[in-house]
Amino acid sequence: MNQIPNNVIRQILLLMIILLLGVVLFLELKSFIPGLLGAYTMYVIFRKWMFILADKRKWNKNLAAAVLMLLSFVIVLLPIFALINMLSSKIAFAVNHSSEVLASIQRFVQHFELRWGFDILTTENTQKLTALVGNNLSHILGATFDTVSTIAIMYFLLFFMLTEGRKMESSFTRWMPLKEENIIMLRKDLNSMVYSNAIGIPLIALLQGIVGLVGYLILGVDEPLFWFVITCITAMLPIVGAALAYVPIALLFFANGMTAKGFILLAYGFGVIGTVDNFFRFWLQKKIGDVHPLITVFGVIVGIGLFGFIGLIFGPILIALFILLVRIYLNEFKTIRPSSN
Asked: What angle do CA 69, 72, 78 make, to 5 degrees?
């Protein structure tokens, strides 16, 4: 009977220990995954400029990393904080004038109840709505704290990624158990996916928001900048998208007796705002990279469940990364069947 060599036994035991420790570390540090993904996304975007400043301009690495991080904060995070401040002011107004807001909503709903002949604001529905808001308020507050923590972790990791970028990339190439051609494919396609999702998705949403803002200004919508922000946010959501912004505005027009404006906005929303997404996506595919719409839809659904709001960006990246790894596996082990004539 052949015995297992001692060297194989030691290797298996060591691998089991490594796997066990890896599982423990993952379970304890999984909350840091969004921060890690955010740091890598920022690294891919600023990698080129970091190398220019550090290698060509001969800047100190720490100084170059600090300047790029400050730039990212100004370009990316300040608009987000301004958005949060705008929304929080609206929420604070609604809370302070809750009775007036509720009365306005009740009048709006009663208008449609009388027109359509059935009850919407029943006692049961009101109780369900109150319970729903109460149950989700703690989740909203928790998500806000998680977002702040994620940003802090992201910048902490980003600093080391920028200052040790070349060393990190060489270690990645050396440790990956793949052929060199597949490593190059992985790095190239992964960077392309980051650009397509981290820049493409928000840019398309911003362009849709601008198109919506033009219509809001022409139709005389109250507080058009607020609805512009709402349009940008909802445009990143799958399936319904920006309709979550312009449909409520149209309903407000109907409630105030401005039926013509309501129908015009609905036609403009579904006919223009909703379709420019395809035009802008086709344009960005040529400029940045190709992201299949199904990857975006399912990626957003998965990402929001895993990471919350920032999953709008990271979800599609994870789906695309999974597909890329399958392609690399098929290429690495030559399991692709030849096409039949």
From this structure: 120
DSSP string, 132-152: HHHHHHHHHHHHHHHHHHHHH
Structure tokens at 254: 């109907």
- Exposed, middle or buried by CB within 10 Å (0-12, 13-18, 19+), for 142? exposed
The residue to which tokens 């990624």 are assigned:
161
Nearest to 187 by CA among 200, 168, 162: 168
Which pairs with CB-CB distance under 8 Å and at least 24 residues apart come from 61-67?
A: 61/162, 61/163, 62/163, 64/162, 65/158, 65/159, 65/162, 65/163, 66/159
Q: Is the pTM of this model over 0.90?
A: no
Kindly report the CA angle at 115 between 112 and 117, in degrees rounded to 5? 95
* pLDDT computed for residue 290 by the predictor: 60
Band of residue 100 on the pLDDT scale cut at 50, 70, 90: low
Q: How many CA atoms lie within 13 A of 314 on its CB side?
A: 20
Mean pLDDT of 275-282: 73
In this structure, are residues 16 and 30 in contact, taking their beta carbons and an 8 Å threshold? no
